[in-house]
UniProtKB/TrEMBL annotation:
Listed name of the protein: GNAT family N-acetyltransferase
UniProt-listed InterPro entries: Acyl_CoA_acyltransferase (IPR016181), GNAT_dom (IPR000182), N-acetyltransferase (IPR051531)
Pfam families according to UniProt: Acetyltransf_3
Residue ranges of domain N-acetyltransferase in the record: 11-179
Gene3D superfamilies documented for this protein: 3.40.630.30
Matches recorded under SUPFAM superfamilies: Acyl-CoA N-acyltransferases (Nat) (SSF55729)
Organism field: Qipengyuania mesophila
């Protein structure tokens, strides 16, 4: 049974369950949605990420979640908290937040709505002293939302990742401290 971690005006943010990989594959694993995230994944890759998320939630009390639209009951996105685990990153182990939204739900404010709830979760119940978010300069929508959420660009944490194409390098980072978050609420 999934845990409901947060609710917003239009969304329920719930934990990932066994069997959710097929839904994610069908609704979120599209060329447009995955364009700046390393491309479309194989189902077994999604299943492995889900297993990792479920284990992290059991172990640490946080993970990535599904965004469920209250009006329809449909999964419209994926968001949450994990640890920075890219070995090329300069801040492995930091709390990392992220999101993606189904293509037919773009430009409706779902990512911002979900991420405000995720940041509240990170700084209150999880107790993160700060969070980071990773993207590329080419992913303009992503870093613009980071800025809208009050996150600050951290060029000192940028790194190159050869598993991404040249247009998505370097990986750039934004961060937000608990104090910064509280001053923008």
């Amino acid at each position: 049974m999934a845990d409901i971690v947060a609710e917003t005006e239009r969304l329920v943010l719930r934990t990932i369950e066994d069997g959710d990989a097929a839904v994610q594959d069908r609704l979120l694993n599209t060329p447009a949605v995955m364009a700046r995230l390393g491309g479309v994944k194989e189902l077994h890759e999604i299943e492995a990420k889900h297993a990792k998320s479920m284990a992290m939630y059991a172990r640490e009390g946080f993970s990535f979640l599904f965004m469920i639209e209250k009006a329809t009951g449909e999964m419209v996105g994926h968001c949450g908290i994990k640890r920075v685990d890219n070995p090329l990153a300069k801040n492995v182990g930091d709390h990392e937040v992220g999101w993606l939204v189904r293509e037919d739900r773009w430009r409706r404010g779902y990512a911002e709505e979900a991420m405000r709830a995720v940041l509240d979760w990170a700084f209150t119940r999880v107790g993160a002293p700060h969070v980071v978010a990773l993207t590329s300069e080419a992913n303009v929508g992503s870093w613009k939302l980071m800025e809208k959420l009050g996150m600050v660009r951290r060029e000192d944490l940028d790194f190159d990742d050869p598993s991404y194409p040249p247009e998505d390098n370097p990986t750039i980072l934004y961060s937000l401290t608990k104090d910064q978050w509280e001053s923008t609420r």
